[in-house]
Amino acid sequence: MNKRLKRLAWIGFFFLAALILLLPNKAQLQNQSELGADLPPRDDYQKEGHPKMEYVLYRLMGIYQTQGIEKAKEFARLRSIDMEGDLVRVVLESQTGRASEAEIQGKASLVKVQVENLGGKVETSYRQLIQSMVPLRALGTLIDYQVVKYLRLPLKPYLLEVTSEGVNKTGANQWHSLEAYRTQQGAKICILDAGFKGYRNLLGTELPSSVITQSFRVDRSITADEEHGAACAEIVHDMAPYAELWLVNFETDVEQHRAVDWIIDQGVEIISYSLGWFNAGAGDGTGPICEDVKKAHDNGLIWISGAGNEAETHWEGKYRDPDSNGWCNFEKPGEPVSEEFAFYVYEGDSYFVFLNWDDWGTWTGSEYIGSEGNDYDLYLYREWPVLTDWSRNDQTKGAPPTEWVAARASATGWRYIYIDKYQARRNCKLELFFWYGFNLEHLVPSGSIIIPADSPHAIAVGATDMADDSLHFYSSRGPTSDRRIKPDLCAPSGVSSATFGEREFYGTSASTPHVAGAFGLLRGKTPYTLEQIRTILEARAVDLGPSGKDNKFGFGRLSLRR
Amino acid sequence: MKNKFLKVNICIIYFFLIILIISTLNLYSLEIKARVIKEGAVLRLNPERESTVIKNLPLGAILEIEEIVGEWLKGKLPPDERGFVISGYVHKSFVTFEIEPAPAKPRKRIEQKEERRPAFGLGISGGYASPTESIYDGGAMFGGRISYSITKNIGIELKGLAYQSPVDGEPEGLSAGKITFVPIQLSVLVRFPIEKRIVPYVGFGAGYYLNSFEIDSEIVDDWEDLGFDIEEKVEHKLGYHFGLGIDYFFSSNLAINADFSYCLVESKGSWSITDQASGAQVSEDFGDLNFNTIMVGIGLTYFF
Q1: Which residues of B touch A526 (CB under 8 A)?
Q2: Hey, which residues does A434 pair with through a beta bridge?
Q3: Which of A158, B122, B200, B301 is in the most buried spot, having the most CB atoms within 10 Å?
């Protein structure tokens, strides 16, 4: 009897343990977290937060109020949120509706006054967007101000970093000694980037003897402790040695809008853009960042944009929930469906996961309108069930269909994300990007083109190998969310640069300036318009992959040869 | 501007050089005479002091010099009243030279030719043509002409020429290369005969300029290597000219000619570049192409 009882007890214990291990439940979600507080219930909760405030800001504000400034700073540091003292960098979007430009400016002025009255300082602005440093204590007051439509963190671009033998590979060297035909001046090329650290040491050697620099950062630093832009500029100069170069940097979306207006006024013809954005648009060429590309295009500029290095850090698919428990199910061929999505991180890396879905509404040229309000939330676990970060913007109240989580890896290993349907009328198509996340359990390289390479007005550039023209594994692929083929061209990556020294310069970041330089070279040597040069480069591209334009190589690898 | 001025000067110098050559030809037809300027001059049988004296020569006597032998001049006196001509040697210290135009006899022949000068002329001509714009270099020209004398002073001339002008090339104009001009010029000539052999004239008229341009082959090849076709064209155009010249008649049928003219030619043209791979093409018209040219020519005409 005792034996039977013991056996039953052991069997019960085994099943209990298995249940605990295999079937996560709400209690576990609620009670264990790396951060140790504010565990989010998965359902049956009223969404905390404020409909006019990005969720992460709301959390930051809560931590500041309950745990003090130091904890708030720690929270901000892990998520690359800019803080100085108790001031946090935010973007205030003022109400626009169908307001005229004068009305927009008027409302923006009101917001600026309010920011300053609350002890904040306005850093820069662009139409209805006001970038400010605002005291954490004042965030709650500010969002109650009627003219403020939405308060969010500034969007930031991500470096498509991954230096140049590409000159010979593409045949650009044959052009260098050629006398220009029916044109008298070099092209004007702008490298729009995050920073140009070390560029002064390259003047007269790796760069022209003089360049024009302009920083739109708040601190006006053109170097910005970032060498990425200098390496890109080197490649442009290698390709088009007689081109005039503008080195322009920024840090946030608002600063980029101002930078693009300035670049257009300067008479620049070509923009080399080795940056990318997550959660900044619908992936169909719309959104505020793509609007800058359109504006540049409408003013006669050509925008060369890195396709992205996200082919192996991207997933997209329709929300599925066969067991109707709210958690999104991920499918992998040959394996049972799973509600967790594993990825690998390395100790010390800050990593981010970005989620967006197809409920952006219609882009008016300045904002998205008409979203259905489908609301999904994103959770990040260090290991089950240790919750590391979560994001629960309230889309039912008009927040954009995006969520993002971030952390710094305390140890190398797997991390997991979960996606919860909070409230949705339909099963939306979800899209995930992992920044410094590897070995994704579920991988969809297709559709990994990043913003603004998705713009129909941008020339999206993928990365091919210097040696054998194979597509680099990371090179983002099309199509765009509205089914257009991207990238448009590919160019060599893994090239040398003075900036990076012994390290080879990899990524679509390196490929992009090859194409921008090729545009500059032909612009400086021939009388063709930029659109005609685009046609020429597409026709001369070495067709790789399937015949014709395809979603991996576009028209093929850049070539200036006949 | 400097270049243009220099070109005009060079052409004027060439023109006067030709005139000088023609004048020199005329000099060869002159006779050399010597006048006795010292007393005691004698005409000797041989060119030596001990030689037999043929005749004493009075001061002012004129000898027609036939030959110079060291310090002695072989000369002859004009025929005397009986028609005898005495010739001998006189020492050069007793005489001074005088140059006189050829005797009236040949002039008489010219007069006869002038009166009988045929109306039609057929000739060849050559020279140097120099466009005034600094990007075009000058070049040798060749051609032919047909002329017809309507009156003694008025004639018409149809001239066909061909010349090539290397082009330095400039960003807004033609590229470096070679431009070929083939002007067909019709001129009215107004002649002012100042002598039977020498007939200066002024002329003016219009011409049709058959122009063609060839880009430097190195440039074409460089672009061809990169897969681009480049082409530049210049249009045929009507032009005008005016100038002056001079005919020198060797005989009643044969004359050489030198002339100087200024041609006013404004043409147009176009360029194009085509990418062989995509077919993308840019083409555009040049602005006005100034082909104004200074021509200095020399020719030979046979009249019949």
Answers
A1: 228, 273, 282
A2: A353
A3: B301
Inter-chain CB proximity B226 and A182 less than 8 Å: no
Does position A217 have pLDDT exceeding 60, yes or no? Answer: yes
Q: To the nearest whole angstrom, how far is the Cα of A389 from the nearest Cα of chain B?
A: 52
What CATH fold (topology level) applies to the domain A314-435? Jelly Rolls (2.60.120)
Query: What pLDDT sits at residue A3?
Result: 54
Element (H, E) at A84: strand A83-84
Reading the block at residue A181, the tokens are 């035909």
pLDDT digit string (tens) for B138-191? 899 999 999 998 888 899 999 999 999 898 888 778 999 999 999 999 999 999
Under an 8 A CB cutoff, do B277 and A536 touch? yes
Coil/strand/helix, residue B63: strand
Which of A174, A178, A526 is most worth mutating to test chain B (most B CB atoms within 10 A of its CB)?
A: A526
The answer to whether the Cβ–Cβ distance between B223 and A535 falls below 8 Å is no
Q: Does B62 touch chain A (CB under 8 A)?
A: no
Q: How many angstroms away from the CA of A183 is the closest CA of chain B?
A: 7
How close A519 comes to chain B (CA, Å)?
Answer: 15
Q: Write down the pLDDT at residue A20.
A: 36
Give dist(CA A381, CA A340) in Å, integer: 9
A529–B222 C-beta distance less than 8 A = no
Domain with CATH 2.30.30.40 in chain B: 7-101
Residue-wise pLDDT tens digits, A80-128 = 899 998 999 999 888 776 677 788 888 888 888 888 888 999 999 888 8
CATH architecture of B120-303: Beta Barrel (2.40)
Count of other CB atoms within 10 angstroms of residue A345: 23
Instruction: Please give, rounded to a whole number of angstroms, the shortest distance from the CA of A337 to a CA of chain B.
Output: 49
Dist CA B230 CA B247 (whole Å): 46
Tell me: the pLDDT tens digits for B232-283?
999 999 999 999 999 998 887 899 999 999 999 999 999 999 999 999 999 9
Q: Helix, strand, coil: what percent of chain A each, to 5? A: 30, 30, 45
Cross-chain residue pair B219–A529, CB shorter than 8 Å: no
SS3 of A429, please? strand
Is residue B280 less than 8 Å (CB to CB) from chain A? yes
CATH fold group of domain B7-101: SH3 type barrels. (2.30.30)
At A306, give phi and psi (nearest 5°).
Answer: -60, 135
Per-residue pLDDT tens for A390-427?
999 999 999 999 999 999 999 999 999 999 999 999 99
Contact A179 B219 (CB under 8 A): yes
Chain B nearest CA to A548, separation (Å) = 14
Nearest CA-CA partner of A488 in A508, A461, A455 = A461
> pLDDT class for B104, splitting at 50, 70, 90?
very low
What are the residues facing A497 on neighbouring strands? A501
The architecture CATH gives domain A158-310+448-540: 3-Layer(aba) Sandwich (3.40)
Q: Nearest chain B Cα to A538, which residue?
A: B278
Query: Shortest CB distance from B273 goes to which of A181, A184, A539?
Result: A181
Q: Where in chain B is the domain with CATH 2.40.160.20?
A: 120-303
- CATH number of the A3-152 domain: 3.30.70.80
Q: Do residue A174 and residue B225 have CB atoms under 8 angstroms apart?
A: yes
Give start-end residues of each CATH 2.60.120.380 domain in chain A: 314-435
Residue B215: closest CA among chain A residues belongs to which residue? A181
A228-239 vs A508-525: helix crossing angle, rounded to 10: 40
pLDDT for B170 equals 81
Name residue, tokens 């043409």.
B267
- Give the pLDDT confidence score for residue A34 in this predicted structure: 39
Contacts of A529 in chain B (CB under 8 A): 282
For chain A, residues classed under CATH 3.30.70.80 are 3-152
Judged by a CB distance cut-off of 8 A, whether residue B286 touches chain A is no
Q: Which residue of B has its CA nearest to A177?
A: B222
